[in-house]
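ok trying again, last paste got cut off:
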Amino acid sequence: PIFADLRENMKAIPNALPLNTAVRVPSGPVQLLLFCWDLDMVKKALKTGASPLPPEVRQPLEHWEFLCGLDKQKLLESSNVLQTPTYNALSPQRKTGVLVQVEKFIVQWNVPALTPKEIIDKAGPSNVRYVQIDVEGLDNPIVRALPLGQAGFWPEVVLYENNNGGEVRHIFEDQGYYTCCCVNKWGNNILAVRNHHGAKGAL
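nice, full thing came through this time. structure:
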């Protein structure tokens, strides 16, 4: 369902090739188990104003349609569903009961996964100009797996989510990129720019 929505949203974008795949590190499994919100629940709530979740927690928001995590806890944290004064004031026993009700609306998906290089090989892009990485906790390993310099892969701009992203800034800087933190758009990100004087492969 998520990929169907993505494909529909990208119909008007020229030269776009949506891929129904997740991204993984080279040592990772070829199938990823993802936990996402029930899309039917989220869409119905947004359309009708319904409140399908317990009253002690947050109700679905639009961006929940695109949230997934490698485990349930990551999904709960990224959606801030439990971050309410009412939920925080509950007894531990009552919190457990509410959490059970919330988790009924979390679904699991087994998604085929490719490494960054495999995705590039499959899509066959040339003259890559922009790469954005936002993969809920795998951002730094994916940065490490980027095939910089291979087959002419020198993206001019890379934007990746800042989850201790300073640890991998040197990967770009060692290749002549300029990096800066922080770009607060779609979250907190680090920006790497290749197209400047002295950068390897610069235009």
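cool. The helical segments are 2-9, 39-48, 72-79, 85-88, 92-103, 116-123, 139-145, 169-173. Strands lie at 22-23, 31-37, 68-69, 106-114, 130-133, 157-161, 178-184, 188-193.
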